[in-house]
Predict the structure of TerL.
Amino acid sequence: MSKQDDIKGFNYSYRSVPTLLDFSEDNSFIRAVIGPFGSGKSSACVLELFQRALEQAPGKDGIRRSRWAVIRNTYPQLKDTTIKTFHQWFPPEHCGKYNISTHDYTLQIDNVYAEVLFRALDRPDQVANLLSLELTGAWINEFKEIPFAVFEAIQGRVDRYPAKKDGGCTWTGIIMDSNPPDTDSKYYHYFEETRPDNARLFNQPSGLSPQAENLDNLSESYYGNLASGKSQDFIDVYVHGRYGYVKEGKGVYDGSYNDDIHVSKEPLTVNTATPLILGFDFGLTPACVLCQVTPRGGFNVIEELISDNMGLKQFIQNRLKPQLL
């Protein structure tokens, strides 16, 4: 089946997105594509997942079984963008069954039986589940927002289903898409400096260049309006698809934080008569702040604990408990 034609009856063409055609025809274990807003990256990844499910060799019963994790940073992003894009291409009422409580989609078309497991990293139970799965492959959506440790860990969860005794995987690997990260990112170091033999990065052109992609699905003024009134950093990343740093949103401390006021000149002591407040950030880079409300109503941050490539149980055992004893 030609990649230029419809994929199994779905009207998707690579004619206006040649970079994504190259991405789809590559068989590297790890493939990532970066580009500006609106360049068709996510849709291409959805169709790529289905294409690989179609190519999976059938088992003894004639069924092409595969299992895929689809990963996003937070549940609202997963629900409002990633899952919605997937359902636009493969409506559950026509293509299988979607379990809204577990976020698992069983895609059944002809002899294809593909399990698609949507997971968000802001839920500790989903992180633990993700790192115990046996998968054919995975799609990491907006990978620049995903801890690099998760990307490394998921490489050990693919090429596990179907099991070798059942014929193994016809293709296995990780596909990823994102707007470009900054040059301090571990992903930049991985793809641009380390450049492993089993990984490839595909760069889409600027949305304002003559080579701009996916314009068939955008208005003529899309990128002009997107660039209007924005900072150069924003334009570089989201319009031109270049590496750069864009400050997302507005810091809650802007205009109010002051080192001279908010940083204690002396080490803060723990008041044994006042409860400790623990504030956690979960994932594979868990962090915790130890705080107390003072008798006079002040709020003290006594200690900040951080980690890298460490599960929550290990973090509590090795980093948090020693501080509390």
User: Anything to note?
Assistant: The longest helix spans residues 41-55. Residues 1-7 have pLDDT under 50 and may be disordered. The CA atoms of residues 234 and 308 lie 29 Å apart. Residues 268-323 form one domain.
